[in-house]
Amino acid sequence: MKLHYELIKKETHSKARLGKVITNYGTYQTPMFMPVGTKATVKGVSPEELVAAHSGIVLANTYHLWLRPGEDIVHKAGGLHQFMNYQGPILTDSGGFQVFSLVKNKKKDITEDGVHFKSHIDGKKLFLTPEISIQIQNKLDSDVAMSFDECPPASASYEYLKNSVERTLRWAKRGKAVHSNPNQALFGIVQGGAHEDLRKYSAVETVKLDFDGYSIGGVANDGESKEDMYKAIDYSIPYLPEDKVRYLMGVGDPIDIIEGVIRGVDIFDCVLPTRIARHGQAFTRHGKINLNNAKYKEDFTPLEEECDCYACQHYTKAYIRHLINCDEMFGGRLLSIHNIRFLTRLAEELQESIKNDSILAYREQFIKEYQGK
């Protein structure tokens, strides 16, 4: 069975949607935050801890798994679920974002056939095409595969973005043509920067290809402003079907998630919760806190009193600060568990606010507390 989406309710005062994604590994409500397990593992967090944090879909990265251990190894293991022992749904991104970050000469290395670049591991010359990306994902056997798209920088000109949108559409058709895993959904990606006409065109033409779900890309590259991110969502959402899931790629800031949900987005992903954890930072309802700060040395309270995560139920800020200062891995693990649970709790609260038609009031109260205003 392919993953599919069912709309449960629309929020009265916004475009927010309560829905559910139905998968071979269970049914999960949206809005949803998806932790990122780039190399078939969410850094520092076990599959059992992900389940305890109420995670649903998790991500793995096609580019990294292509290089190590190789899609054939994962396939022989029985697919990603067996390989990483995660018995929940998995989404694999196309590898496009990583590939385009490694391209040195865009005019020379980005061709109609695919992209030439060098491995970040050993400098080996590599070539990735839409077909290869999809074939790798077929072997990884994720529940959702992503189309291979061009990821232009935020500074790209209108003309470049226009040509990029056209190329992404051609690549989407090529990838769809070779997609051969009957149990794997395939999502199309909408591009176009912060230009209303390009976003509309990209969305309309991508929907014509009839994917199983749709993603809004190009909002988490380096350099985009919040305003441009919200424009990209606003310009794309009206042209995406209501009976398919809508995915905003690479976004994990709590306020951005709320704003995305209000604009009609269903699912989000980002490395942010585990990345900031490794630097000693934690999400709280009153903003991010940095456990490296001396004021937490004798703070024997949990990261958040109301949080039900493993870290908050068993450990204090003082202890976690001690671990971070001693460069003990357990500190980063505890903060990662908490940060992931913070975002899954945020998604659960957003679900309730949609049920109650109170999402705008929820946003106002959350921002007031989070920003201390």
Can you characterise this structure?
The structure is a single chain. This protein is α/β, with parallel strands linked by helices and 373 residues long. The protein folds into two domains: 4-270, Queuine tRNA-ribosyltransferase-like (TIM Barrel); 271-373, no CATH class. It is built from 16 helices and 15 strands. It has helices at residues 47-52, 62-67, 71-76, 80-84, 96-102, 106-109, 130-140, 158-178, 196-208, 226-236, 254-262, 272-277, 310-314, 317-325, 329-355, 359-370, and strands at residues 4-10, 17-23, 26-30, 32-35, 58-61, 90-93, 115-118, 125-128, 144-146, 185-190, 213-216, 245-248, 267-270, 281-282, 289-290. The strands form four sheets. Strands 4-13-12-11-10-9-6-5 form an eight-stranded parallel beta sheet. Strands 1-2-3 form a three-stranded antiparallel beta sheet. A two-stranded antiparallel sheet has the order 7-8. Strand 14 (281-282) and strand 15 (289-290) form a beta hairpin. Helix 9 packs across helix 10 (226-236). It is globular, with a radius of gyration of 20 Å. The model has no long low-confidence stretch (mean pLDDT 97).
Strand order across the largest sheet: 4-13-12-11-10-9-6-5
SS class: alpha/beta
* Beta content: 15-25%
CA-CA gap between termini: 47 Å
The total tally of domains equals 2
Helix content: 40-55%
**Could you name the CATH class of the largest domain?**
Alpha Beta
CATH architecture identity of the largest domain: Alpha-Beta Barrel
Give the CATH H-level superfamily of the largest domain. Answer: Queuine tRNA-ribosyltransferase-like
Shape annotation: globular
